[in-house]
Automatic annotation (TrEMBL):
Ranges of the WD repeats in the UniProt entry: 283-328
Protein's UniProt keywords contain Transport: no
Keywords assigned: Repeat, WD repeat
InterPro entries xrefs: WD40/YVTN_repeat-like_dom_sf, WD40_repeat_dom_sf, WD40_rpt
Keyword Ribonucleoprotein listed: no
Organism: Cyprinodon variegatus (Sheepshead minnow)
Name used for this protein in its record: Guanine nucleotide binding protein (G protein), beta polypeptide 1-like
Cited SUPFAM superfamilies: WD40 repeat-like (SSF50978)
Domain of life: Eukaryota
Gene3D superfamilies, sorted: YVTN repeat-like/Quinoprotein amine dehydrogenase (2.130.10.10)
């Protein structure tokens, strides 16, 4: 008989609004943290040892938080809100101050993407004021790098991911659009390298594994679309995975390249083996849409967690398919 699905190891309550974004920071020797962004503009900084909110940062004029990330230095937090602002926060010595901001002009829900280019510099990609416009800015100088606009009407930009190939090419950018198209852009040359029709509906989310040059995208349909980038930087559609219910809010690949997690509109988190997209587990806890998922970056694999944030205002944390997981549950992720 198959074993029942696991339960969360614990849950976090008190956000008081739907959880649109999650981001872990679990460096060795320091307190492991989980950042959550809510639909009421609150950023909760959860201490994973005490399982309580260490601090709450109020920002973005009470508008929904769309995206969160921390800089490699660990002392700066970046947040994106529906107030058309991307804010940089200083977290040193318990401070919670917005020290800088970038205005996007975007009215959509497209989440930013960040790419470190040196220890002190990074690129920030975000949807711009025009429907199909993507802006790339160098930070922290806020120097504009380029504006990317397709030569045909594709509708609103829905999702983005920057990445740097090993081939020596400059930064590249994946972008999913409202008409279901996915484009690969060369940021340095400001040109479109490849385009595919990945979905019949808007591309709601995507994630990419640079090591395998392989990615996956989701939509409001009952399917995940898998694709790869060949040596000529052309996107090649591969297999698809049919889901039980339609709608995917977010997709995340674990750092070790073994697992893929999806946040479902059907209140469930689904876990797949990343190599062959084999379904491994369906995690059921939430009573409303799951809006966000994130894998922790613990240095010790045995401590790794999967977090899910939901419209039901709760965060669930799961310990699955790591070195402490039940052997019967682990199985093969090949």
């Amino acid at each position: 008989m198959s074993r029942p699905a696991p339960s969360p190891v614990y849950t976090l309550r008190g956000a008081g609004a739907p959880l649109n974004s999650l981001h872990f920071r679990c460096p060795g020797g320091e307190t492991p943290l989980l950042f959550s962004g809510s639909a009421k503009g609150a950023i909760h900084i959860w201490n994973l040892n005490s399982r309580r909110a260490e601090r709450v940062v109020e920002g973005h004029s009470g508008q929904s938080i769309l995206w969160l990330s921390t800089l490699p230095s660990g002392d700066a937090l970046i947040s994106q809100g529906r107030d058309m602002q991307i804010c940089l926060w200083d977290l040193k010595e318990g401070r919670s101050e917005a020290v800088d901001s970038v205005w996007t002009g975007s009215v959509g829900f497209c989440q930013c993407s960040l790419l470190e280019t040196s220890p002190s510099n990074y690129l920030l990609a975000f949807a711009g004021q025009e429907t199909e416009e993507i802006q790339i800015t160098e930070m922290p100088s806020k120097k504009p790098v380029c504006t990317l606009m397709p030569d045909t009407k594709l509708g609103m930009v829905m999702c983005l991911q920057l990445w740097k190939p090993d081939s020596g090419l400059g930064p590249l950018l994946f972008a999913g659009y409202e008409d279901g198209s996915m484009l690969l852009w060369d940021v340095t040359q400001r040109i479109e390298l490849s385009r595919v029709k990945a979905h019949p509906e808007p591309v709601m989310c995507l994630t990419f594994d640079p090591r395998l040059r392989r990615g996956v995208s989701g939509s409001c349909e009952k399917k995940l679309s898998s694709w790869m980038v060949d040596s000529q930087n052309n996107i090649q559609l591969q297999d698809s995975v049919v889901l039980v219910n339609p709608g995917v809010s977010q997709l995340r690949i674990r750092d070790d390249g073994r697992l893929l997690a999806s946040a479902g509109w059907d209140h469930r988190v689904r876990v797949f083996g990343w190599k062959k997209l084999r379904p491994l587990a369906v995690l059921q806890y939430h009573t409303d849409m799951v809006l966000s998922v994130a894998f922790s970056d613990h240095q010790d694999p045995r401590q790794r967690l999967l977090a899910a944030g939901s419209k039901d205002q709760r965060i669930s944390l799961w310990s699955i398919y790591n070195e402490t997981a039940d052997k019967a549950l682990q199985g093969s992720t090949d």
